[in-house]
Write a structure and sequence with these properties.
Blueprint (H helix, E strand, L loop, with lengths): L18 H10 L55 H4 L20 E2 L5 E2 L1 H4 L30 H4 L2 H6 L10
Antiparallel strand pairs: 1-2
Length: 173
């Protein structure tokens, strides 16, 4: 608890419940326990545990003492040479950069840096690279459907039949 100025004076009386409801609250929260039951929470030096009311009152809370935020000034905080077009964020936007060029000839290399021929660089499966000119990303895991190992509900699923069109390694079974 802070010794700084409080939100309210110490003369302000905290709201309390009537004795009956205070007794009922203590019974329901097991504040007053039997002698054979260990006390709640961490006991004090005298061995007794005291109920701490979780309610917050203005005379127990410290006043807010945080300082206002001190943010660094930007281009708007300059006193001189503060031209509008320099401050306008719309003028600093650039078009998106090109990630690749169709005219460029890519060079492929191993992880050690040794150059590879383009034919070796493509991660091709048994026949084709799915018709793509670029290498297949990843380690080139190939998926092939085997109806013999599927459950009956999977064998008759129309979605799998639809996706078989895209499986270039599918064998007629």
């Amino acid at each position: 608890m802070s010794y700084a100025k409080k939100i309210a004076d110490a003369t302000v009386q905290n709201r309390t419940q009537t004795p009956f409801f205070s007794w009922l609250r203590n019974k329901l929260l097991a504040v007053d326990r039997q002698k054979i039951t260990p006390p709640t929470g961490v006991p004090r030096a005298d061995g007794k545990s005291v109920y701490h009311n979780p309610s917050r009152y203005p005379n127990t809370q410290s006043a807010r003492t945080t300082e206002p935020v001190n943010l660094p000034g930007g281009v708007h905080n300059k006193l001189a040479a503060n031209y509008y077009l320099d401050r306008d964020g719309r003028r600093s936007v650039l078009p998106p950069p090109a990630l690749y060029s169709t005219e460029a000839n890519p060079s492929f290399a191993k992880t050690t840096g040794e150059p590879l021929a383009p034919a070796e660089a493509y991660s091709k499966g048994p026949g084709e690279n799915f018709g793509l000119q670029a290498p297949t990303p990843g380690f080139g895991a190939e998926w092939s459907r085997s109806k013999n190992t599927e459950l009956k509900t999977q064998q008759e699923t129309q979605e799998f039949v639809y996706f078989e069109r895209f499986d270039c390694y599918a064998k007629s079974t």
